[in-house]
Amino acid sequence: MAIVYQKEQRIFTLQTNHSTYQMKIDDFGFLLHLYYGSRTDGNMDYLLTYYDRGFSGNPYDAGNDRTYSMDVLPQEYPTMGIGDFRNSALVIKNRDESECCDLRYASHYVSKGKYELPGLPAVYAEEQEAETLEIILEDRVSKVQVRLLYGVLEEEDIITRSAEIINKGRSGIVVEKAASACLDFVSGKYDLISFYGRHAMERNIQREKIAHGSHVIGSRRGTSSHQYNPAVIIAGQDTTEDYGNCYGMVFVYSGNFLCEAELDQYHQTRVIMGLQSDLFHYPLEPGEVLAVPETILCYSNKGFGDLSRKYHRCIRKHICRGKYSDSSRPVLVNSWEAAYFDFDGETIYRLAKDAAELEIDMVVMDDGWFGRREDDNSGLGDWQVNEEKLGCTLGELISRINELGVKFGIWIEPEMVSEDSELYREHPDWALQIPGRKSIRGRNQLVLDFSRTDVRNYVYKQICDVLDQGNIEYVKWDMNRSITDVYSSTGSQGRITYDYVLGVYDFLEKLQKRYPHMLIEGCSGGGGRFDAGMMYYTPQIWCSDNTDALDRLRIQYGSSFFYPMSTMGAHVSAVPNHQTGRNINLHTRGIVAMTGAFGYELSLAKLSEEEKEEIREQIRQYKQYEELIRKGDYYRLSNPFQDEYAAWMHVSEDKKKVLLHVVMLENHGNMTVNYVRMQGLLPGEVYEESQSGRSYYGSALMEAGLPMPLELGEYPAYQFVFRVRNID
Ligand code: GLA
User: Fold this and answer.
1) What is the DSSP secondary-structure string of 307-358?
2) What is the mean pLDDT of the chain?
3) Which of 112, 150, 198, 649 could form a Cys-Cys staple with 660, CB 3.0–4.6 A?
4) What is the 413 CA–ligand 1 centroid distance (Å)?
């Protein structure tokens, strides 16, 4: 049993294979947090301490007891207005405009299986794989209830948290702020690791001490954003890749979020993950419910590598859905960096023809095939095939391509509208715009009001009409600007940012149901919406608009802290690279891209015969190791932001097959030798390296490492394949 309730002590214990989470309903009905960390036994309410603390308020129920204060006690779901002056998980404005919500225990319920959140992505599991605990807390005055949800996936060491805010009262309230998880630590010194970035340079890493005051990351851009990923690690200050305590908080949501880490006056740490409170004032009428998106918690006492592998498993098996969540992905060539807007049907056909020769599985026609779209200033919203530009119907083009044995995919950007489009001319009020103000443009386009069902339904129909014109096996769903002008011509303004994201999810859900065999790849100017929420609908996401192999090493490294390699769209592109001008050799570009969902993004016609032969070989290799890369355990063996080399490896579940990739990042005169120490092997087994035929004990490879060759040139890359001797 993963969830145990001890009635007398009123203690809830959640157990996973390697972690324990405990909380207690105290005498006044407050739900106090006791512990989260390595597995422990017994009740841990002895951790609660009570002292008279000046300027920390005492609830009325405590009578003359000045030692009882919510300002000091660790809580499960801290609220505003109860004498806790730290960051709150929930702020409610009552009808009388007071900001107070005093939550006390009302009831709880334990069930088999994992709870679902209507309209929101969430971890899913078979009934025997998970248990759910729901705890109802209630404000006895306003009758507002909070339904705290805990999902426990024992085998995966995963605990999910979510909350539903339910207005059981007689008058309307406004939810000003709502989080799904709060972690309170009564002791310990922690670092916060967050993943910041910008367009074309996503998920760099920042590690800093959680110090007095509050450190805040989040997004107000309407999407989870390139700038801060909605996932953080709270780590012991001595924690490393393979040593020490760390906790992950991954928000399963693709819109505005807020994460606050705070060290309080008594050196206690609080970290909260939830919805962004700016641009959010969610009105709840009597009987209405607000579901806060889920946070996936995970703990490891073995460092970041182990934490990441747990998240990878969880996201691959319990977030990604559909046919492609667990099957090989087509190797594709995308027309964007090959032709940008400058193509016709023949260009795409020739790309497919060259693809067939190289055994590339699929051609993707990117932006520019619809409406009047010769550049990025017009046409968005007019999802009608530009047959004049293509020189044929879409159906004809797809059939010709399929006859070559090549699959066909297409690019769409349903959430957007160009002012220069038929759609905007007919329905200017469908774009998010504030009356009386000029819009803020982004890439010269506006955002459609996807909080509105009528707008979504219209676009959905247009898109389906296109997708029904032929055998389309892949869609790239793009979103190319941040959201501003948050105002809807219908509905309540304070809920738009949330309803918009739920609108996107609703659209994607319908699309997935209607085309269950179609692979949908997410994208938002590359990795601007690279989050677990999108992964529920799109099992792979274009990781970055930056295809430069050196930058990609770092972007993929940062992304790998939570997200499995199978979710990272990664392509070999031309040199000089279009984003950086760097000339990295084809072999290295191949090694870097094949660590994700592999493809190409260049004009195949411009390749020399030798390059074509090399690409054929890359694809052969990728197909040989694709399953190992997609399903194997992933180990980061260096930090490419700091080290002279980037090294990472994939190990099969039985640990008998291993793929090691190394890219040298620096080259100097009279260079020193780098030894790459491997991980995750069977120490007592002998591994044979396929190219050299040499054998090594797993223990030797892990303890002493493998010397890397010294080679002249920029960024040489190496692929080593090891197998335990005497296996098939
Ligand atoms: C975004 C995407 C690119 C490409 C262009 C098309 O920038 O990230 O891959 O699809 O849009 O306009």
Assistant:
1) HHHHHHHHHHHHT--SGGGSSPPPPEEESHHHHTT---HHHHHHHHHHHHHT
2) 97
3) 649
4) 9
Atom of ligand 1 nearest to the CA of 601: 9
What CA–CA distance (Å, rounded) separates 376 from 593? 27
Question: Which residue is closest in CA terms to ligand 1's atom 8?
Answer: 525
Longest dimension (CA), the chain: 86
> What is the dihedral sign for C-alpha 219, 413, 282, 69?
negative
Beta strands in 101-212 (DSSP E): 103-112, 131-139, 144-153, 158-167, 173-185, 190-198, 201-209
Cα–Cα distance measured from residue 648 to residue 639, given in angstroms and rounded to the nearest whole number: 10
Q: Give the chain's end-to-end CA distance (angstroms, integer).
A: 39
Instruction: Name all residues whose Cβ lies below 6 A of ligand 1.
Output: 336, 366-367, 376, 411, 478, 480, 523, 525-526, 542, 545
> What's the token pair of residue 706?
């493998």
CA of 523 to the centre of ligand 1 (A): 8
Residue nearest atom 1 in ligand 1 by C-alpha distance: 525
Sign, CA dihedral 208-210-214-216, equals: positive
Give the pLDDT confidence of 561-570 residue by residue, as tens digits. Answer: 999 999 999 9
Residue 191: beta bridge partners? Answer: 209, 235
Q: Say which residue the tokens 């690690």 belong to.
A: 233
Residue nearest to atom 11 of ligand 1 (CA): 525
Compute, in angstroms, the gap from residue 501 CA to the centroid of ligand 1: 20
Global pTM value: 0.98
Q: What is the pLDDT of residues 482-530, one digit of tens each?
A: 999 999 988 789 999 999 999 999 999 999 999 999 999 999 999 999 9
What is the CA(370)–ligand 1 centre distance, in A? 15
Closest ligand 1 atom number to CA of residue 545 = 8
Q: Which residues of the chain have pLDDT under 70?
A: 727-728
Atom of ligand 1 nearest to the CA of 525: 8
